[in-house]
Amino acid sequence: MGTLSKIAWRNVRRNKRRTFLSALVIAVGLGIYIMMNSVMSGMDRANIDNLIELSTSSIKITTQEYNDEKESLPLKYGITTPENVISYIKKQDRVTGVTPRTQFLGQLSNWEDTMPVMGQVINVETDRTVFDLEKYIDGDYFSDSKENEIILGKDLAEEMGVNIGDYITLYALTKYESRNADEFIVIGTLNTTDPNINSNVILISYETADEFLDLENLITEIDVAMERRVNYETFTQDVDKLAQHLKNKYPQLEIKTFMELASGFLKITEQKQFFGSILMLVILAIAAVGIFNSVLMSVYERIREIGVLRAQGMKRNEIIKLFLWEGIYIGLIGSFMGVILGCGVNIYLVIHGIPLEKFGKFSNVGIPYWGTLYGEWNIGAIVFAFIFGLIVALAASYIPSRMAAKLEVTKALRFV
What we know:
18% strand; 2 domains; two-stranded antiparallel ribbon; elongated; 12 strands
């Protein structure tokens, strides 16, 4: 076996052009697979990042009573001493932001039509450390003005027929369930990748809401942002770990991760991943055909050489083993080149990404067209690609060499 492997290695080194072409086909096929796997994983990650940065945050904290009646967004179940909870969470590892929010139900009126809305009371300074709404705002963010300021979803503003600078009336029940109404000036509109925000959501500041809703510093939820990790699985592990720690620390509170809050959305993402896997299989099949043809032609070109080896006394199984060793070497070289090529492209995708705005609007598929699509590292896919290239090269070497080894010596020598 040692002698055959040495002869095979000499053959591989001697026929540099043939070896390079066969290995190149393997490398290109595997490189494309690794790159596409990275991009498709990045697309799923972009959807999840949007979800976290626009609505759920990494972890959401409420009281258990509030969670039981969350559909009505009640203002009677505030978190006790929220400042202490926020201060504690800020000290935890990989936490990048913590902010309070209070949600309420209301109605908007332009003096002609009235529409139900979901109001979100935000802390102007800390909300930007958790949610990424500012980059989607047309107009202004909240200022130090004493005037009642409001930001509307863009579709909602269009439906109500109001523009930036116009006044609109907001109706809502206060903390004490008394009806209140006041005029607000529209300072901006939200045009996000979430249609629910665009058509139903309004934002006001705590300074305004304290008086309008009689909040008296009431906070119904605390949202937590965590460090974005290169690998999604690592990120979810960080989130789960912190959530479990907080559940032990604050058993009286309802603590939910984005995975729990958006389980339906994540199931849809899993279904998309299934169809994405089918696409990846097609890419692998195309790569396999290319690899198979390349190595196959390499073997058929050497049938006369097989005849010479048989004439010199080499047995059929030794010839097959010789070509299998050559297939192993070519597969190793090609797979290694493919991994280097794929990882090289992926480094760029992970660090710099693809600026999506250059390719038009992607909001219909839930990808932020103002942002950048980054690649994802998938070690399992890289290892699979390497092994796949090696196996296909072996199969491509075995089948024709077995057929050629069965030929009579005279026929093999006359093969053209």
